[in-house]
Amino acid sequence: MGKIIFYEDRNFQGRHHECMSDCADLHPYFNRCNSVRVESGCFMVYERPQYLGHQSFLRRGEYSDNQRLIGINDCIRSCRMIPMHRGSYKIRLYERPDMSGQMHEVSDDCPSVQDRLRMSDVNSCNVVDGHWLLYDQPNYKGRPYYLRPGEYRRSLDWGGASSRIGSLRRITDFKDHAAGLNALIEADGVLVLGVLSPGEEVLLAREVGLIVDHERPALHPAGAASAQMRGDLRAVAHALIGATLEITFYEEKNFQGRSYETSNDCPELTSYLSRCNSCRVESGLFMVYEKPNFMGQQMLVRRGEYPDNQRLMGMTMSDCIRSSRMIPTHRGPFRMKIYEKENFGGQMHELMDDCDNMQDRFRMNECQSSNVMEGHWLMFEQPNYRGKMMYLRPGEYRNLREMGMSNMTKFSSMRRIMDSLKAISPPCTHMLLVQIRFYQDEYFQGRFPKSDNDSSNMRTSAAAEQKVTMERTGKIIFYEEKNFKGHHYECSGDCPELNSHIQHCNSLRVEGGAWVLYERPQYLGYQYVLMRGEYPNYQSWNGFNDTIRSCRLIRHPSSMHRIRIYERPDFSGQMIEFSDDMPNLMDRWRYRDLHSAHVQDGVWVFYEHSNYRGRQYLLEKGEYRRPAEWGALHPAVGSIRRVVDSS
User: Fold this and answer.
1) Backbone angles phi, psi at 123, to 5 degrees
2) Arch. (CATH architecture) of 562-642
3) What is the pLDDT of residues 496-513, one digit of tens each?
4) What confidence tier does 1 reach under pLDDT thresholds 50, 70, 90?
5) Does domain 90-170 fall into CATH 2.60.20.10?
6) pTM for the whole structure
7) pLDDT tens, residue by residue, 367-379
8) How far apart are the first and last CA of the chain?
């Protein structure tokens, strides 16, 4: 997680505001900004709200005079935190708007676009992987423009005053992004992880092949402990520090459809999902909002599952979550001042604990401004913590608009947010009791033994289940070196995080089942669909590099295959149906693009280019109304293939 501090005066003097995520409008927190300190991570700061105007890229360091050091005056009005990126980088540059005309694909830094690509203007681009900076002059000089993954159909979309681009480079300055990784030492044959983390961070033992002995004395009060582990210690340490808080949003109810995970503030969820109908909080506390940029109705969500957002938000519309805020862990006192009038005028009262009725306690009918000095608070529309709620974090709120009270005219009770630590699951160091139920049919259907003591029934069910599982199981072996050499890891089921088992993958052998591999953890990034066979190097599965971070077994591939593809979104326009492989779609489909598909039987793979080359997209049985629903950034499909389990 990154952290940036804005100061009103030069040399880090005057009022200041700390920020650890995107902020579309900084004006409520300070009147001007003349110096900045970036304590961790990378940020883009903007001259105007809503990420508009002149931009400046800031890495970890101190900027005591904004005008002299970063070429921007005292009007910093918004900022973006640049997320950490591991993996490949790829950007496509187009000569004309709307991704048309001559196209060049770049995967590394380019100091001169004119010399290398023979392009003087770039009118549109598609950032496929990674985060990039464009400069209007060669050699990374002039005005910078920050681009994160997505499509930019014209230069105005990235804030450019013209289409002139002189150079571009990848943002790879993440060495100091995860604060707290301080020491890696070895003592008595046991690897020891020393973490000197800030007070609000908690070190958790996760499923990354890490064994933490919490009974032994800690190295530091912030949470370092003796540890023994396998794999890349540094990568695991980063995963531990960054995995304290996490929420997952799903497009469909009951945690179905495409998903997006985040552990930071997200001002605009529609950049990742077209809708949101359910969510799951793995750990921590989050505030979810009805509208983008943390506006509209708010709701506090704790650790747990929320299968239907309509019931969660209490609204008629179901896909009503548009932004979210992570509520940081707070240790220490709570203090807030509330004022009767705007701009901190009129009667004032200071709170250090909960207040269930403001009228009874302070004889105040209205509160028009507030100053949250310590801790995080929830304000409620009605007494006794009922009605609509509003989240306030440390800062000054001069009027109701700055508090975000677009849907509330008053509040009558307020409460401290004190359960953020309880919402983070503590590590378990003792015995874990596991209960397993075996079902007769798929998808947890049919009878199962109701008596936990009925061992004979359990053995019978287990034997039947084992037989079914053996018939349908898969097996894949990952090797760190080419030609099936070096350290290897065998897997027979889904694995959301392979980094704890192998550091890289240069060859693999599929001994059973059909599999989809992903370049990033949690089934994200590039996809590679593999059937039974041997793959001696990553080029043999059309890989871009030796990075495989998660894998999933494709269960129950059907012997019947049928798919319909459509010319336009939402199953409109010309339609054609296939039941076999198609190495060159243009032979049967006169359009270059397809915008929707309906998989009626079997499992299919879309390939970006003909002859099963380029990016791959797995489509299981169901409806796909637009390319984004099968994970594509554009509608180009060159070939399609059935997934057939040859085991």
Assistant:
1) -100, -15
2) Sandwich (2.60)
3) 888 878 888 999 999 888
4) low
5) yes
6) 0.36
7) 888 888 888 999 8
8) 44
Any idea of the CA torsion for 625, 631, 633, 638, to the nearest 10 degrees? -80
Q: How far is CA 90 from CA 52, 120, 147, 413, in A?
A: 25, 20, 12, 51
Superfamily, domain 475-554: Crystallins (2.60.20.10)
Q: Could you tell me which CATH number the domain at 246-327 has?
A: 2.60.20.10
Q: Where are the beta strands (DSSP E) in 403-541?
A: 413-416, 475-481, 485-491, 507-512, 514-520, 524-530, 533-535
DSSP annotation string for 358-396: HHHHH--S---EEEEEES-EEEEEETTTEEEEEEE-SEE
Number of neighbours of residue 207 by Cβ within 10 angstroms: 9
Angstrom distance (rounded) from CA 176 to CA 183: 14
- Side chain identity at residue 23, one-letter code: C
Report d(CA 308, CA 465) in Å as an integer.
32
Task: Tell me the average pLDDT of the chain.
Answer: 76
CA atoms of 424 and 636, how far apart (whole Å):
43
CA 381 centroid distance within chain: 32
**Mean local confidence (pLDDT), 515-528:** 86
Cβ-contact 110, 119 below 8 angstroms: no
Under 8 Å between Cβ of 7 and 29: no
Q: What is the pLDDT of residues 564-623, one digit of tens each?
A: 999 889 998 888 888 888 888 888 887 778 899 999 888 999 998 888 888 899 998 889
Give the residue ranges of DSSP H helices in 75-225.
113-117
Complete DSSP assignment for 135-168: EEETTTEEEEEEE-SEEE-SGGGGT-SSSB--EE
Segment 170-179 shows an average pLDDT of 59
Structural domain 3-82, CATH architecture: Sandwich (2.60)
CATH of domain 335-416: 2.60.20.10
H/E segment holding residue 461: helix 455-472
What are the two backbone dihedrals, phi and then psi, of residue 255, each rounded to the nearest 5 degrees?
A: 65, 40
pLDDT at 646: 59
User: What's the one-letter identity of residue 600?
Assistant: Q
Task: Tell me the backbone φ, ψ of residue 527, rounded to 5 degrees.
Answer: -115, 145
